[in-house]
């Protein structure tokens, strides 16, 4: 993976690079402004962004993450901070993970495993359906959920866009990767890797509440936990 580290503490930077190891390439930034400049002028994009929240320049980590998201909507962003006061903002920005300093090796290993798995799972794969008489594709990583609306299907994406087509949820479910998508309700299929949280009998996806019906509840808990904590080969 190509990883951007934006951290203005030299000691913390060295520690992160050491834990990441030699299997991944790291681009180091002490300024959020410089990272954004490279993204704008050089069109640089990274597989994973590790951002300190408390930066000395005007580009603090929260604002920086927002700017990155506006240019790279699929960015995997991880906050690295001495404080856990910014979980709400992290949630709003769809931050991939939130690490508290000092970061431990096992935390970094889990982050890298999750990131590699998400990239591998989503790369080049798409949901295919017919729209206005022509085939249309939505990449897996962009899709939050699919909902049944009468005789139509609604496809809701992370950027807020929506698409509809004719069809039945049973039919589209057979074409999806069951390792990524999970039917949690008679009318909903969710992308488990785009679920933000599980609370009682609902999934939170992009700020929306997706119901989990009773027959699916136990499996939903297991699938959600697996998506968060599974160890990948």
Summary keywords:
LytTR_DNA-bd_dom, single chain, 233 residues, phosphorelay response regulator activity, 5-stranded parallel sheet, globular, alpha/beta, 5-stranded antiparallel sheet, phosphoprotein, DNA-binding
Element layout with pairings:
Layout: E1 2-6, H1 10-20, E2 25-29, H2 32-41, E3 48-52, H3 61-71, E4 76-81, H4 87-92, E5 97-100, H5 105-122, E6 126-131, E7 134-139, E8 143-149, E9 152-157, E10 162-166, H6 169-175, E11 181-185, E12 188-191, E13 197-199, E14 202-205, E15 208-211, H7 217-229
Parallel strand pairs: 1-2, 1-3, 3-4, 4-5
Antiparallel strand pairs: 6-7, 8-9, 8-12, 9-10, 11-12, 13-14, 14-15
Helix pairs in contact: 2-3
How would you sum up this structure in a few lines?
This protein has 7 helices and 15 strands. With 233 residues, it is of the alpha/beta class.
Description:
By secondary structure, this protein is α/β, with parallel strands linked by helices. The protein has seven helices and 15 strands. The strands form four sheets. It has a five-stranded parallel sheet with strand order 2-1-3-4-5, with helices on both faces. It has a five-stranded antiparallel sheet with strand order 10-9-8-12-11, with helices on one face. A three-stranded antiparallel sheet has the order 13-14-15, with no helix packed on it. Helix 2 runs parallel beside helix 3 (61-71). It is globular, with a radius of gyration of 19 Å.
